[in-house]
Amino acid sequence: MAQQLATMRTPEGYAAVTAYARSHTGDAAAAAYLALGHAYLLDKRYVEAESGLSQARRDDGELGDYADFLAAEAYHEAGTDPAAEAILRGFTDRYPESIFDDEAPELEANVLLAMNNTEGARKVLAAAEETDAVSRPGYQLAEGQVEFALGQQQTAESTFKRLLLAHPLSQEAQTARARLTQMGVESTLTITELRSLGDAYYNAGRYAEAADQFRALAQEPVLDNQTRESFQVSEAACQLKLKRLTPAQVQGLPDTNDENGARRLDLLMELARDRNDSADQQRIVSEMETRFPHSLWLADALFSSGNMYLLQHDYAKAIQYYGELATRFPEDKNAAASHWRSGWLSYRLGQYSDAARIFDEQIRLYPTAAETVSALYWRGRLYETQDRDPARAAANYRTIVRVYQHFFYAQMSRARLSELGATQPASAADLDRFQPLAIPHLVDTFPEDSPHLAKARLLANAGLNEYIAREIKADPDSSSWSALAEAQIYSSYGETFRAVRALKRALPSAASAPIASIPLAYWRILFPEEWWTTIQAESVKNNLDPYLVASLIRQESEFNPSAISNKDAFGLMQLLPSVGRRLAREEGIEHFQTFQLLDPVMNIRLGTRYLRQTLDKFGGVQEYALAAYDAGDNRVTDWQAAGPYSGIDEFVESIPFTETREYVEAILRNEETYKAIDNFARLHGEVEKTASKSGNPALAGQGESPSSTPSHD
Known about the structure:
The chain is mainly alpha-helical. It folds into three domains: 2-199, Tetratricopeptide repeat domain (Serine Threonine Protein Phosphatase 5, Tetratricopeptide repeat, Alpha Horseshoe); 203-393 and 401-410, Serine Threonine Protein Phosphatase 5, Tetratricopeptide repeat, CATH 1.25.40.10; 532-689, Orthogonal Bundle (Lysozyme), CATH 1.10.530.10. It is 64% helix and 0% strand. α8 (104-114) packs antiparallel against α9 (118-127) and α35 packs across α36 (633-641).
């Protein structure tokens, strides 16, 4: 119930948790009242939050610091500051291990300011000067507010500026800027400082705010022409991102012989690409090569031009631009990708000697780049087909299998090694530097005496999910088990997708790790088998491998049955409503409604049917069907027509959309990993295919309908 309230906060949810709280006593009632107070606080219903949290505070249990801190927040927001101060006074002494110890000083200072006790607020902040609290934007904002209230105008100005420039994307920074404006000193921010704000907004994707900042800067009266023009072109770049820029607007910018002029041409090139004007695109890039041969804006234009011709299947032109970027700008952020693409497209055109040379350079120059595993594999293929050197090919393949164990190209390499039979790999010292990513020390048992872990579990019962990870990590000895503990707590209340994400963040090296190198409990959460009975039954009905279905679900929704994408795709297998309605008719389901796609059983039933149909359209070839599932049938038909391909590996590498190519590779990798996990488990005596394999009995048998998801109160 508490979890549902935290997620939905409906009248029915409030009523259910309230009834539960009133009918229970002790820890159970305290957790329910804490859940209510927290939910009301999120909904800005502060008076009701006060009531629920005051009830929770009557029980001096393990979550006492949460009840106190959240109650103080509620009292402060409701304007009942004396009650808030009574709670916050001595908070860090009462709860020396609380995760709120760094936040309490800033909250108490704000409470005291609201009570016109400025000197008290100053003392509270001063007492925390030697703690980590001082690095928090909230502390710095409170510090500036206190200084301003004490009449220390210059000091407050300095503090607000420091906050704004150090944490420009924070909510506190916006408040600090408003205070500077109110004080009449925003104009004292230097041009360099204001530029840094615009750059921060732009790099964070906040293009409208960046555009406003650059526009204001361009209107500053005391600027040299070059600086003013840099702000004008920066604003234009924001408008391009916002899809509001026109060629006339860019043509109206000064055509200068500096970086502003180079960026202006780059913007014109992007607009030419958008309207598919090859002649104008080529003319602009040629002009940039002549006028700005060393500009990084030329590098951007070259990469974008290469991508343009890649999508048009004009590989010769794409090679020209990619190759030029890699040659002129070998340290550019896109150099490794451009270098690889020039080699790959040379291979596709049958220019095998050029391809071999570029692949060798890629392996030597960019050993850590994401594309280099592809270069290792395709150089191996050339060793086989062109150089007639199977031993050296085997060396490349074995390196891939050793370093990138679960990657798509590891699967392909194992297949090639099988074809090569007893061929012994050549000795290749240049391949020895390729090593798998390090795996952190991990354990699958937890200390029984960790108060932070105990509190994290109680937080889940109270629906205070946003604090779970912080609470676990507050244990100083948790590095080897914190990720698993967090993930298992999420799994215990049915949020498998949160559990998967927690372990993905903690184990980015899992795709290159042997199964035996990571405890099985981690793998079981990383590769869930929720709704397995349904997946098996529907897979049998549609002649599918259940591991393929689970792999697709993992990639599409991470097993979140409530997922709705920005393209309006629903549920575990991300079905569009129109597709769902058609499939429901075919299945004989009457009165189907879109919301039923959020039912896991229904979604799997229809999604497996859709996957079967897609496979049938493409001759049962998984790679084609998966590409179509992601990008659409017409695109895959178009990509097939761009062949011929020597094998399915060549088709996959030739998918021009990076997202779709990685999608296909990931699902094939997932499928193999699922099988490897189960094979490893069988070898080590694990037989049951239930979620409890993750060490979480609360998960056993979960998943056959929404109503079976465990609730916590």
